[in-house]
Amino acid sequence: MWREEENSLKRSLTFKDFKQALAFMNAVGEVAEEMNHHPWWSNVYNKVAIELTTHDAGNTVTEKDLALARRIDEIYDRMMAGN
To answer: Are the C-beta atoms of residues 2 and 39 closer than 8 Å to each other?
Structure first.
């Protein structure tokens, strides 16, 4: 689940393997580009860590972050349902 700390929303996700983690990042990348709101994230093998904050609002959590978090959750839930 998402947690709010240090003026950002954070979530860590685990996948079955690197290929699935990369597919998730590609899917989120499409949505982030569509929303013009891009996450900070990192990936090591099957783990993806994400941080969302709105730089234009002084690095705080805004509705843009909450909306992207919801879309990320939808993508993750859809991918996990397929396993």
So the answer is: no
